[in-house]
Amino acid sequence: MIDNDKQNFINRLRELMKEHNEMTPTALARVAHCDLHAVCRWLDGSFFPRFAHLITLTNFFSVSIDFLLGLTEDDSLS
Question: Whole-prediction pTM value?
Fold first, then answer.
């Protein structure tokens, strides 16, 4: 079973991918500079991204790290 914090991240990442033209895991792997296997593990909850990947994702999606992690509903960077 996946804990709530990890599930919040998974849900938020899937939501952001959907908002970006139904972005595929392969495309996300290219953006995050990692392999597809890593992204699939993020999406199934078996692995959490490294800090550097989280920063890359927040920059790409233009959201705060708190938003990406599901800690806030405010997606602004300020």
Answer: 0.90
